[in-house]
Design goal:
CATH superfamily of the largest domain: Leucine Dehydrogenase, chain A, domain 1
Number of domains: 2
Oligomer: single chain
CATH architecture of the largest domain: 3-Layer(aba) Sandwich
Helix content: 25-40%
Order of helices and strands: EHEHEEHEEHEHEHEEEHEHH
Number of helices: 9
Number of strands: 12
Strand content: 15-25%
Strand order of the largest sheet: 2-1-3-5-6-4
Length: 311
């Protein structure tokens, strides 16, 4: 995960690495071939996704005959994509907006966490059956620990959003002992559902309460580039409500430095970008699909070869 609280550039905060060739670890002069195992990400938008960079680097590092590609699947077609994956024998899928909830009922089973959240971000093929996992919360906590060694226990938290990623973050924070978790959302029904995941420490909040929070998480698409109309430069909080002693996390990773992160950094808060959560989610998915530990350093190195994405 990228910590924007330092003065160095985004690019300097991940290990530098050279460009990767998809044929470097192949045992054939022509690749992919008929035996190549396929994994993919589905979403809309998805052409900005860094998941193919991360996971293809991991497969190459381990010398595996796998390939990971991106499918832009429009809203409403998530279930059809799952059935297509079943028919085509795709070995694993990552699921991002707007399909995390839509694919739930198309699977043969889900993990306990995915069942509680009713949202899936990873699909694992086991024989002819497809099973859903939700690694958002675990990926978020692992990334936060790696970036700033931050423990949510006893802390006051505000989460913007009530979708799949937001609910996963809420559940992860609550299970790790957060003192309070405020949900700021536009949809009252979805916000109430997110609050219920936090139990006694959950509540509906408003953006103006950010000033008293120790952790602020943007789990909405606000700030993302690649949306219809270009770059979304809205700001969810008042700049004067951010300051020293706060950790501000933006799950948006395209651009890697969002307006929220820039503002948080300028106000003295510790700003943490969304790339680390993506890396750790990908690492968990890699193990679920292949049974092997993911080569995290190779994945970070692959990101450095992509260069900073500022817009």
């Amino acid at each position: 995960m990228i910590n924007e609280n330092a003065d160095s550039s985004d690019q300097a905060q991940i290990t530098n690495g050279g460009p990767l060739s998809l044929r470097e670890n192949s045992t054939s002069a022509v690749w992919p071939r008929a035996s190549t195992q396929v994994a993919a990400v589905i979403g809309d938008p998805v052409r900005h996704s860094l998941s193919p960079v991360l996971l293809n680097a991991a497969f190459m590092q381990r010398g595996m005959d796998w390939v990971y590609i991106a499918f832009e699947v429009p809203k409403g077609a998530g279930s059809a994509a799952v059935e297509a994956a079943r028919t085509l024998g795709i070995r694993g899928m990552s699921v991002t907006m707007p399909h995390k909830e839509a694919v739930f009922d198309s699977l043969d089973g889900v993990s306990e966490t995915a069942g509680v959240l009713r949202a899936v971000n990873t699909i694992v093929a086991r024989g002819s059956k497809l099973f859903g996992e939700n690694t958002d919360g675990e990926g978020f906590v692992n990334a936060l620990r790696e970036a700033v060694d931050w423990d949510p226990a006893g802390r006051d938290c505000i989460v913007f959003g009530a979708g799949g990623a937001a609910r996963a973050v809420v559940l992860a924070l609550a299970s790790r002992g957060a003192a309070s978790i405020g949900i700021v959302g536009r949809n009252s029904v979805r916000s109430a559902a997110a609050v219920s995941l936090a139990g006694a420490v959950g509540r509906i909040a408003v953006a103006e309460e950010v000033a008293a929070a120790q952790l602020i998480v943007n789990a909405t698409p606000v700030g993302m580039s690649g949306l219809a109309g270009g770059h979304d430069a809205r700001l969810l909080v008042r700049p004067e409500d951010l300051g020293s002693g706060q950790v501000v996390v933006d799950l948006v990773y395209q651009p890697r430095i969002t307006r929220l992160l820039e503002t948080a950094h300028s106000r003295g808060a510790t700003a943490v970008g969304g790339v680390g959560m993506l890396v750790h989610q990908a690492a968990i998915a890699f193990k679920l699909w292949t049974g092997e530990e993911a080569p995290l350093q190779a994945m970070w190195d692959a990101l450095s070869s992509e260069g900073p994405k500022g817009s």
